[in-house]
Design brief:
Strand content: under 5%
Largest sheet: none
Helix content: over 70%
Number of helices: 2
Distance between the termini: 73 Å
Order of helices and strands: HH
Radius of gyration: 30 Å
Structural class: mainly alpha
């Protein structure tokens, strides 16, 4: 076989392609290893902002509504409904607190009260 034969050219082309693929695979692995921690930080920041926004929204909404309740009278059914809602809010707030302070955020551990929030 001569150096310019089709078999040698195919072998050389295959070796070049294999080397290019290995180089590409190394680049992808490097980018993945470098980007993964940054992506995790971005996701963490987004989750943090979602929690802060949820708390702020609840407080702002309650702050807007509660002052207007002065002098209002609620019947037993209305008080029970609001009481159930507040129990759900407390349960979800405790769930969030456990997730943030202890890292316990299992869906199995979600309060039953959260089932109706969505």
């Amino acid at each position: 076989m001569s150096p310019g034969s089709p078999v040698n050219r195919d072998t050389a082309r295959h070796a070049v392609n294999e080397a290019q693929f290995d180089h590409f695979r190394q680049q992808v692995q490097f980018v993945h290893e470098e980007a993964a921690p940054q992506l995790q930080r971005i996701e963490h920041s987004a989750q943090f902002m979602d929690l802060v926004a949820a708390c702020a929204q609840f407080v702002a909404t309650a702050g807007r509504i509660v002052p207007n309740l002065r002098g209002e009278r609620y019947d037993d059914g209305e008080r029970e409904t609001i009481g159930r809602g507040l129990s759900r809010v407390r349960a979800v707030a405790d769930w969030i607190e456990n997730a943030v302070t202890r890292g316990e955020a299992d869906l199995d551990a979600a309060p039953e009260a959260a089932e109706g929030l969505g």
